[in-house]
């Protein structure tokens, strides 16, 4: 295992004892939350039923309501521009952003989004020239990465997006050592440079994000251009959530390491409740140590905890990376069905440990079947489940009761298998 004290790690926090990290994250957590509600009208209204004296551990977070990223649009309309989640006057922030939706986010100078650690893990070092192709317009991606690179003592060329020919000519002239942007645009740039017979050996490392990064494309970069980009996972509201690392042989380690300032949970989609380690669920993040705190923000992304430390020597929790979307709501027979409704059913029938609504087509009509995992088939009747579903959600379904372990661990609550043609 790699030891701290080298320039492999961004700071000593990355290698601290996991028990100490957990204690520091949750030290006086209830008091911290209470102070935030005293400064933020949005969080005061959102958490008005929470007894902060009883919030002391990770498990206690199950008693705090989740705020969904998808709900921020309507919340901000009611309390413009930041839904009241800011803890200082909106005019005191250095930046204001408008992400698609629109969702408005504030920003500050420096490493406000905590991107320095993921850039460092990807190989960025003081004195490097960074070519940043994330957009600098409206959304925060370009500035959040650029500011953190500057924080590491680097120069940043804000390439942004578009005008590929001009960008390639600029890259040829200035020879940046580090690329930041989407993996697809990196491929476009490298392939175009190669077509023009330009040597690209000056490009040593890269950090990519904002879209899926397939193993085939990773292999393509390594074999054709001798570059091993690392991937970052984040969101505009909190910045970096997790990031990849390399081993001594310049190979990518499995999973993504959670950023030090983030409290990350995996919850059952449609619920407030944390799942067991290894079970797939929705990524929920809390970040309290800046002027725009987020408390149990549900990202809408699926992932799972890897119950083992990273070979790179960083000791924080790892997740498996992006595994799909948690938002699985759909219409069945003209009726809107959500994961929250399936969770309501499992709350009512405690004998059901897990449930999945599978929607197929039969004779061109919707044919929903609810698969229910149970401990003991003798303690529950299919007709009772059907009656509950009909009374609560106005929908007739078939029910299939199965033994525990029959439903695949992939975080899917509503599986739409209808023929889209």
Lay out the secondary structure.
Layout: H1 18-25, H2 29-39, H3 41-46, E1 67-68, H4 72-78, E2 95-99, E3 103-107, H5 116-121, E4 129-132, H6 141-151, E5 155-158, H7 164-174, E6 178-181, H8 183-195, E7 205-208, H9 215-225, E8 230-235, E9 239-243, E10 256-258, E11 263-267, E12 281-287, E13 294-303, E14 305-306, E15 318-319, E16 330-332, E17 335-337, H10 339-348, E18 352-362, E19 365-374, H11 382-393, E20 398-403, E21 414-416
Parallel strand pairs: 1-13, 4-5, 4-6, 6-7, 7-8, 18-21, 19-20
Antiparallel strand pairs: 2-3, 8-9, 9-10, 10-15, 11-12, 12-13, 14-15, 16-17, 18-19
Report a brief summary of the structure:
This protein is of the alpha/beta class.
Structure, explained:
The protein has a domain at 330-416: ANL, C-terminal domain (GMP Synthetase, Chain A, domain 3, 2-Layer Sandwich). The protein contains eleven helices and 21 strands. The chain has helices spanning 18-25, 29-39, 41-46, 72-78, 116-121, 141-151, 164-174, 183-195, 215-225, 339-348, 382-393, and strands spanning 67-68, 95-99, 103-107, 129-132, 155-158, 178-181, 205-208, 230-235, 239-243, 256-258, 263-267, 281-287, 294-303, 305-306, 318-319, 330-332, 335-337, 352-362, 365-374, 398-403, 414-416. It has 421 residues and is α/β, with parallel strands linked by helices. The longest helix is centred in the middle third of the chain and has 13 residues, at 183-195. Residues 1-5 have low confidence and may be disordered.
